[in-house]
């Protein structure tokens, strides 16, 4: 399966990955020029944290081999797909209990800002393109996709 | 240098050029497009602020304000005003130098080539004088004194230069500019940290800057240059890399200040200079046009046939021109002199000389040209260029066949040793590139003369629907809107196919002409009606007004036509497109277009889309203010349709 790998020493904190993620998941679709950067509906699924020492910690969903989020999800909204190895989220099944948010060891998951009725979760941009938009748009190549054991 | 050749190069509308660049053993801008493909989304939208050390701040849903509290509207319009002010400053610098050159020439009783142009200026400015020189000096002074006025004193020539209904409109809106240099100052101050935060107020300032840029930087620079350097005359001329003649010492010129070359142009054809060239094995000197100053020289080329070989290409063709190996020196004086030419010049031993310190290139020797020093500096420059030629292409080609047999072995040995040390820079010419019959020399004066001294024939053709309308395709060339000149050329093709006559100015002209659209044969690509008009008159469907400065000439054409029709500019079936705008200067030009009340198409947004207010004001509200309107679209077909629709609307409002 594929995983987004991270070299935090290369990250400049430019957040281009976040803008790319917002752009990939916005509705309706459009160009990067008309993405509303201040609309909370356009949330990013990744986070760039400052490490306080001048460096950055890019936080991306690991699509874990043993995903705590999926294992803690009672409603079956989160599942690790057999064939792709991706941890997928089904909004329709979600009960908004946020057990997954509590259990993700990396703190990537969060309830959506506006309604707090769903979870904002990396989907590897499966619908959008072959390659996750964040990876495509990182100018520093701090993140990349690599084949790993599921 | 960065060895990236072998990387993908970007597309060009000019296919022979694209293939040439892809085959070069040198890296050009066309190679670097790929490695710069990832763009910052915040930057593209203009919502990245670096005005203070709290920053950079960016607007996101979690952070809708910068640390200081500036929101997207404030950040975007501050950035935009900065760009427009800088762009305006560039053009004002050009007109200032041009006026100073005219003044100095007049004082020194130097050559004044355009007497008729001077008469026209004097009439416009209400100037009288007993001699040519007195009048020229007074005209120059009138411009200079306006430029130096404070911001709270309105410039005097604005009313004389502007089309009356426009002047009234500007007065009503309160956007008549004060001294042009002071306006730049005010713009820069206004957008500094924690000063203005009112997006509309800053956008209004852009309009004021647009007016001063347009009337002084554009219109007047042309008129002053016409006085100094001679007026444009219609003629057919060769364009493209074919213009480079390797038998000569070739000097590529780049920049925007044609008047800086006045003295040198004459000096290079004097027998003493030619003798220097001959001494190193060349036939003489030739200037090879590149960027807008090349366009300007081409426009006046009929006065300079001896020294000027032709216009080779626009800003993003300059690296290819150098890569032919036949250019011995680059004389630059302003922008559009790409930093990317520096490593190429180094590699090919091309001498770079810069004539204006504001545009000093890292590799170049700065040789400023104070008027009183012109003779001395000119000779020095010529010597340096000859030296460069000898070092690059000066392998001795002497005939020793008559030499004494006794000396022959020694001569052969010496020549052998010399040749093993000295290697000429290899030539890699593209002699078939471009074409031989591009129509040039189009100006508001020469075009009107061609039409029989009045605009009526053109107006009649428009009224009768033989020509649907006019489109100015102006401004720069960039490498991103589809590739080098791709959008400009495709849009132009679409427009002429819709029977819209295209007028061009700027680097877009350089691309469009190299693609053959300014030859009479291009009439075949026009719609049936426009084609018939072109074939009857023997003209191409795209008329080249030359450098970006000549956007000012287009405006004169438009104003004179509007006057004859008794309407205001926004009523004309006329649209503008800076499809591949590149620089801050283009944004200042664009602000002028909006102040004139014209619809202005851009292929790429000018980093404003992060602000809803800026977008609304520029694309919608402007229609109520000045009559102008910004249209952003990067698709040639769609853009042409949008522009055609506007032309049709304006036609029906005029009942034609
Ligand atoms: S959300 Fe967290 S636990 Fe779930 S797959 Fe992603 S990184 Fe692993
Ligand atoms: S919030 Fe939704 S996805 Fe997360 S654990 Fe609860 S039900 Fe499952
Ligand atoms: S795009 Fe790359 S460099 Fe920029 S913040 Fe994201 S991971 Fe870091
Ligand atoms: S001026 Fe304001 S928005 Fe700009 S960098 Fe400083 S704090 Fe941030």
Automatic annotation (TrEMBL), chain A:
<keyword id="KW-0677">Repeat</keyword>
<keyword id="KW-0813">Transport</keyword>
<keyword id="KW-0004">4Fe-4S</keyword>
<keyword id="KW-0411">Iron-sulfur</keyword>
<dbReference type="InterPro" id="IPR050954">
    <property type="entry name" value="ET_IronSulfur_Cluster-Binding"/>
</dbReference>
<keyword id="KW-0408">Iron</keyword>
<dbReference type="GO" id="GO:0051539">
    <property type="term" value="F:4 iron, 4 sulfur cluster binding"/>
</dbReference>
<dbReference type="InterPro" id="IPR017896">
    <property type="entry name" value="4Fe4S_Fe-S-bd"/>
</dbReference>
<keyword id="KW-0249">Electron transport</keyword>
<protein>
    <submittedName>
        <fullName>Nitrate reductase</fullName>
    </submittedName>
</protein>
<dbReference type="InterPro" id="IPR017900">
    <property type="entry name" value="4Fe4S_Fe_S_CS"/>
</dbReference>
<feature type="domain" description="4Fe-4S ferredoxin-type">
    <location>
        <begin position="2"/>
        <end position="31"/>
    </location>
</feature>
<dbReference type="Pfam" id="PF13247">
    <property type="entry name" value="Fer4_11"/>
</dbReference>
<dbReference type="GO" id="GO:0046872">
    <property type="term" value="F:metal ion binding"/>
</dbReference>
<feature type="domain" description="4Fe-4S ferredoxin-type">
    <location>
        <begin position="85"/>
        <end position="114"/>
    </location>
</feature>
<keyword id="KW-0479">Metal-binding</keyword>
UniProtKB/TrEMBL annotation, chain B:
<feature type="binding site">
    <location>
        <position position="292"/>
    </location>
    <ligand>
        <name>[Ni-4Fe-4S] cluster</name>
    </ligand>
</feature>
<feature type="binding site">
    <location>
        <position position="52"/>
    </location>
    <ligand>
        <name>[4Fe-4S] cluster 2</name>
    </ligand>
</feature>
<dbReference type="GO" id="GO:0050418">
    <property type="term" value="F:hydroxylamine reductase activity"/>
</dbReference>
<keyword id="KW-0411">Iron-sulfur</keyword>
<feature type="binding site">
    <location>
        <position position="336"/>
    </location>
    <ligand>
        <name>[Ni-4Fe-4S] cluster</name>
    </ligand>
</feature>
<feature type="binding site">
    <location>
        <position position="57"/>
    </location>
    <ligand>
        <name>[4Fe-4S] cluster 2</name>
    </ligand>
</feature>
<dbReference type="InterPro" id="IPR004137">
    <property type="entry name" value="HCP/CODH"/>
</dbReference>
<dbReference type="InterPro" id="IPR010047">
    <property type="entry name" value="CODH"/>
</dbReference>
<dbReference type="Pfam" id="PF03063">
    <property type="entry name" value="Prismane"/>
</dbReference>
<feature type="binding site">
    <location>
        <position position="48"/>
    </location>
    <ligand>
        <name>[4Fe-4S] cluster 1</name>
    </ligand>
</feature>
<feature type="binding site">
    <location>
        <position position="548"/>
    </location>
    <ligand>
        <name>[Ni-4Fe-4S] cluster</name>
    </ligand>
</feature>
<dbReference type="InterPro" id="IPR011254">
    <property type="entry name" value="Prismane-like_sf"/>
</dbReference>
<dbReference type="GO" id="GO:0006091">
    <property type="term" value="P:generation of precursor metabolites and energy"/>
</dbReference>
<dbReference type="GO" id="GO:0043885">
    <property type="term" value="F:anaerobic carbon-monoxide dehydrogenase activity"/>
</dbReference>
<feature type="binding site">
    <location>
        <position position="476"/>
    </location>
    <ligand>
        <name>[Ni-4Fe-4S] cluster</name>
    </ligand>
</feature>
<dbReference type="InterPro" id="IPR016099">
    <property type="entry name" value="Prismane-like_a/b-sand"/>
</dbReference>
<dbReference type="GO" id="GO:0042542">
    <property type="term" value="P:response to hydrogen peroxide"/>
</dbReference>
<keyword id="KW-0004">4Fe-4S</keyword>
<keyword id="KW-0479">Metal-binding</keyword>
<dbReference type="GO" id="GO:0051539">
    <property type="term" value="F:4 iron, 4 sulfur cluster binding"/>
</dbReference>
<feature type="binding site">
    <location>
        <position position="507"/>
    </location>
    <ligand>
        <name>[Ni-4Fe-4S] cluster</name>
    </ligand>
</feature>
<dbReference type="InterPro" id="IPR016101">
    <property type="entry name" value="CO_DH_a-bundle"/>
</dbReference>
């Amino acid at each position: 399966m594929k995983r987004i790998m991270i070299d935090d020493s290369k990250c400049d904190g430019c957040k281009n990955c976040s803008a790319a993620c917002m752009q990939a998941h916005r509705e309706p679709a459009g160009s990067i020029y008309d993405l509303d950067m201040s609309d909370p509906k356009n949330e990013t699924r990744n986070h760039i944290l400052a490490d306080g020492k001048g460096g950055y910690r890019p936080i991306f969903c690991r699509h874990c081999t043993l995903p705590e989020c999926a294992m803690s999800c009672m409603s079956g909204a989160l599942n690790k797909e057999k064939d792709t190895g991706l941890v997928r989220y089904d909004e329709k099944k979600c009960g908004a209990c946020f057990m997954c948010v509590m259990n993700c060891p990396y703190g990537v998951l969060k309830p959506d800002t506006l309604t707090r009725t769903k979870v904002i979760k990396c989907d590897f941009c499966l619908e959008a393109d072959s390659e996750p938009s964040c990876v495509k748009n990182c100018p520093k190549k701090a993140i990349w996709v690599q084949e790993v054991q599921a | 240098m960065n060895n990236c050749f072998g990387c993908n190069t970007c597309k060009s509308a000019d296919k022979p050029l694209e293939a040439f660049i892809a085959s070069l053993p040198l890296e050009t801008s066309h190679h670097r497009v790929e490695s710069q493909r990832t763009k910052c989304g915040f930057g593209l939208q203009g919502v990245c602020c670096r005005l203070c050390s709290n920053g950079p701040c960016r607007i996101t849903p979690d952070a809708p304000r910068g640390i200081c509290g500036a929101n997207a509207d404030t950040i975007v319009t501050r950035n935009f005003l900065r760009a427009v002010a800088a762009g305006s400053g560039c053009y004002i610098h050009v007109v200032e130098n041009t006026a100073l050159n005219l003044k100095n020439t007049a004082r020194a009783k130097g050559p004044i080539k355009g007497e008729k142009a001077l008469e026209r200026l004097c009439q416009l400015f209400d100037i009288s004088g007993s001699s040519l020189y007195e009048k020229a000096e007074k005209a120059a002074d009138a411009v200079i004194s306006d430029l130096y006025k404070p911001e709270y004193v309105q410039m005097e020539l604005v009313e004389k230069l502007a089309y009356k209904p426009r002047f009234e409109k500007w007065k009503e809106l309160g956007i008549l500019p004060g001294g042009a240099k002071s306006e730049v100052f005010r713009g820069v101050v206004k957008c500094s940290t924690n000063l203005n935060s009112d997006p509309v107020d800053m956008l209004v300032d852009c309009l004021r800057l647009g007016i001063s840029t347009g009337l002084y930087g554009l219109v007047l620079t042309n008129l002053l240059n016409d006085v100094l350097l001679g007026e444009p005359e219609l003629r057919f001329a060769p364009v493209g890399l074919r213009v480079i003649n390797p038998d000569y010492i070739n000097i590529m010129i780049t920049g925007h200040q044609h008047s800086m070359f006045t003295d040198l142009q004459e000096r290079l054809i004097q027998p003493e200079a030619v003798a220097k060239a001959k001494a190193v094995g060349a036939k003489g000197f030739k200037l090879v046009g590149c960027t807008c100053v090349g366009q300007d020289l081409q426009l006046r080329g009929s006065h300079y046939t001896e020294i000027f070989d032709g216009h080779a290409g626009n800003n993003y063709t300059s690296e290819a021109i150098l890569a032919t190996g036949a250019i011995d020196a680059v004389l630059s004086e302003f922008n559009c002199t790409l930093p990317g030419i520096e490593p190429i010049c180094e590699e090919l031993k091309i001498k770079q000389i810069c004539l204006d310190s504001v545009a000093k290139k890292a590799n170049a020797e700065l040789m400023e040209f104070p008027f009183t020093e012109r003779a001395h500096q000119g000779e020095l420059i010529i010597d340096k260029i000859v030296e460069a030629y000898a070092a690059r292409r000066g392998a001795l080609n002497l005939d020793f066949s008559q030499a004494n047999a006794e000396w022959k072995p020694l001569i052969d040995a010496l020549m052998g040793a010399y040749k093993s040390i000295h290697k000429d820079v290899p030539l890699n010419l593209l002699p078939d590139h471009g074409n031989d019959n591009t129509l040039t020399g189009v100006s508001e004066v020469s075009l009107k003369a061609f039409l029989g001294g009045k605009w009526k024939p053109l107006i009649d053709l428009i009224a009768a629907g033989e020509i649907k309308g006019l489109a100015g395709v102006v401004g720069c060339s960039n490498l991103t809107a589809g590739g080098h000149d791709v959008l400009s050329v495709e849009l132009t093709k679409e427009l002429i196919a819709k029977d819209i006559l295209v007028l061009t100015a700027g680097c877009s002209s350089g691309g469009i002409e190299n693609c053959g659209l300014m030859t009479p044969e291009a009439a075949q690509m026009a719609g049936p009606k426009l084609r018939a008009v072109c074939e009857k008159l023997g003209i191409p469907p795209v008329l080249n007004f030359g450098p970006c400065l000549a956007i000012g000439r287009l405006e004169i054409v438009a104003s004179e036509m509007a006057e004859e029709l008794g309407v205001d500019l926004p009523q004309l079936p006329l649209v503008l497109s800076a499809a591949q705008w590149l620089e801050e200067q283009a944004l200042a030009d664009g602000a002028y277009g909006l102040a004139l009340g014209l619809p202005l198409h851009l292929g790429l947004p000018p980093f404003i889309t992060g602000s809803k207010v800026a977008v609304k004001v520029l694309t919608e509200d402007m229609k109520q203010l000045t009559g102008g309107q910004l249209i952003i679209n990067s698709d040639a077909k769609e853009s042409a349709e949008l522009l055609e629709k506007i032309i049709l609307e304006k036609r029906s409002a005029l009942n034609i």
